[in-house]
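Subject: Sanity check before I submit

Could someone independently write out the structure tokens for this chain? I want to compare against mine line by line before I put it in a report. The sequence has 62 residues.
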Amino acid sequence: MLSFYNVCYLNKKYGWQIPVGDYDTLEGFIISVTECIPRLHQKIDIAGLSCTSRNIYRDDPG
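---
Independent answer below. Compare away.
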């Protein structure tokens, strides 16, 4: 799953209960809770959900 998916969309589509916060995306939620960018292949368990970072890249519009 791509980390830029909207949290509201994911909650509706999958019946998840990701809480509302100062973020819009799955990526923002993960960073908000862990207070860091996950390492490659790091397993993260949050709010009853488990995910593993498979690809990390820098989005540089410059």
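---
OP: Matches mine. For the report I'm noting this point. The chain has a mean pLDDT of 86.
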